[in-house]
Amino acid sequence: MDTTLALTIIGIVLSIIGIVFIAIPKVVNEKTMSDLPKEAVDISALFRAANGGLGLALGMVAIYSRGLPPEYARTVLLSLGTGFILVNLALLSGKIRGFGDELPIPPMVIFGVLTIIAYYTALA
Fold first, then answer.
1. Taking the model in full, what pTM does it have?
2. Residue ranges of the domains in the chain?
């Protein structure tokens, strides 16, 4: 896959996730944590919005890196791919440490697919 296409896909996915997390954090929390205590709703939304900001920031890095020469773009892709692996490990560690009863499968699948795109393109 071309580095420009890979970075565009990754940038768009991360940007959409970031925008949704920033725009409607309480709705996202309701869908992902339906039994959230009332006292935790606002602080949880704050952290969800902060996560959205990070997602949007990484999305912008990917989008703005599309014009780099392929050898530099591959470095960005390897960095993003490694970051996606670390995100999945962090999610997995939350389950292992007892922070939740379930693994958050949808984000783990999304980050898994983005990892494959990033590494496949960077190492091809």
1. 0.91
2. 3-123
